[in-house]
Protein: Cytosine deaminase
Amino acid sequence: MPNLLIADVRPWGGEARDLLIADGRIREVRPTGTDPDGVEARIDGRGLLAVPGFVNAHAHVDKSWWGMPWVPFGGDRGSTQGRIAHERAVRDGLGIPSLSSTVAVLREFLRHGTTAVRSHVDVDLGVGLRGIETVREAVAELGGAIDVEIVAFPQDGVVRRPGVLELLDRAAAAGAEHIGGLDPASIDRDPVAQLDGLFEIAVRRDVGIDIHLHDGAELGAFQLELIAERTVAAGRQGRVNIAHGFALGDLGPGRRAELVARAAEAGLTWTTVAPVRTSPLPWREMRESDVAVGLGTDGIRDLWSPYGDGDLLAIAQTFARLHGLVDEAELTYAMELATRRAGRFVGRREHDLVPGARADLVLLDAENVPDAVVRRPVRELVVAGGRVVAERGEVLV
Structure:
């Protein structure tokens, strides 16, 4: 890749700066006006707002029927178990997981400015590790334009299906960065056995754990306590994530504060898709306690829901509306959750418009960051690893 100068942009809405990019990383953030020596390509940023590339911290890129004829929604929408059963019954007939649909979803992410993803990928007795292979093939087809970390995800349960733990172990041995879990109490109905199995693999293979926890109220709180306890005992602080964690929004202030403190002690992180009709998370207490929060799109046009378009900025806006964020600092925080605060969810120590960081950035025609969150303007330019990958909604890879 040539040494690239992106001139006259406003990082985070501040003063105009030039970004010098070399070897896929930001080499220098410099005053505008004079091009340095060695620049081989130049882009006029036209004074646009610049933010880091969006990080989708909770996706399911293997499940989509994007690009296929419309699939009517079916199954029992009232329960996690009902949706699992419906998905297992019809996915093979639709060719899911599909390379073309996975590529299509990743292209939609790029179109909207997402340059890094943590994706749960189904691992079960029916599909084996084929979903993980499909996702890796899709990433390769896009030439490294988007980074994807994989969570080997046991959507159909862990210990209730003999052989799933062995599949998770094989996935971890083959390079999956994380292994997943799912509602240890209500799906497996044996939280101790599920967590025993997951933590044993995580310690032995040195991978992260990312557990879907839909159970609400005290049932969810009980499992959160078990997970926090196991995390500390296994020395896995900073390596365990709770996805959804609806219980935290269901409880009264005292109980909620107790659980946030336990999560902070265990170094748990949290990902949310900010779904409508759910209780807000105690985001202020989580921020003050250093419980990191990431945003994700969840599934997109899959057998769980026909909704989703891959726009993480839309999720940031939904998070802001669900949690009542209105002033400039709060709206900027919503953008930070989707960008620089989310680097840890994809293994990055630094994910920002600073020297040394990977050159992932998005240019938007917006007055400032709050304006971008509430108006969601078109992504004028998307750069990933120092390469222009999308321009005004057209994906170039």
